[in-house]
Amino acid sequence: MPLLYEIPLHLQTMIGSQQASLVGAMIKDNASGLILGHVQQASGLAPMLGQALGAVGSSGFSPLGILSVAQNEGIRRGVAELQNGMILMQNLQYGTLALSGLGLGVSIAGFAATLARLKAIEARLEAISAAVDQVTTDRREDDLKSVFAEISGDVQNVETLSHRRDPQRVAEQLQLSLARSTRKIEHYFLREAELSRRTSLPIEQLDRLWTLAAAIRLCQESSIQALFAADELEVAQRMGQFELERQIALLQVLSPDILSRLVSRGEPDPETARSLRQTALGQARALTDGIKGGVLAIAGQISIASTLREEGMTGIDYVRRIGSETNVPLVCLVPRT
Predict the structure, then answer these.
(1) pLDDT for residue 85
(2) Beta-bridge partner residues of 28
(3) CB distance 41 to 105 below 8 Å
(4) Which neighbouring-strand residues pair with 330?
(5) Average pLDDT over every residue of 222-245
């Protein structure tokens, strides 16, 4: 088996000396670009991370407006205190964590954690809908609630896949359903990111885009997890590439500069407008950085699927192995040379 319980010392040394870099889940040689290994979160990571980060990392999802330098510093301090290879995550940013998750391999989040994240996303959308004034006669909010109800049922069943005797048929159905939900939420995101007719923008609209982007990532994570459980690794690679391209498309419609300028135009007082623009610029950059984190996370999942195929390890065995490792935060998938 190519799965190791600790990050090999020589890889840690290479990263420490800047000979290699952690790009998403992939450990890459900086000179050749060769993938030397993959860092995969295990079941033991969540409690260790929660203990180290405290309230900063406990919610699973956070509104865009609470992001701050202090929280990023808190993450760096907390991660630095952890051992067993956690030092590799020193550059983790709170925005990426809150929107796209850790981005370290295939998601192993249980139903309770995923549902809590989903409920937080749904509650946030409801909380900001009045401020953004997006509730229209087309029942947009009701449609979103229906999509979230479907996602809730799907993620509950995704958690059962590793315990099923024959998970393939159920996993394939779940992946298709989650893919449909992803496209529905993506439609809302793109519609609300359309700025050509806007003369100004409430700052809450940035939070709404952030929250929709988080919902898209949740669906993508669960969908990829289902494909691994179905042992459809080649399909996971293909679908991962498709989702990666869709994430890049979301980035292309977002300009932090334009978003921040539109937000400031809604404020008549020049001094207040300048301050508001700086706040909006920071939030818009956090939004784009979070989506970029999703791109890297998907790239890592594609690479892991490819490595497993080459090594002859099934997707369901991989999911079961990483899910059973409750005493270690990370494992490392290293290709045989």
Answers:
(1) 45
(2) 21, 35
(3) yes
(4) 41
(5) 95
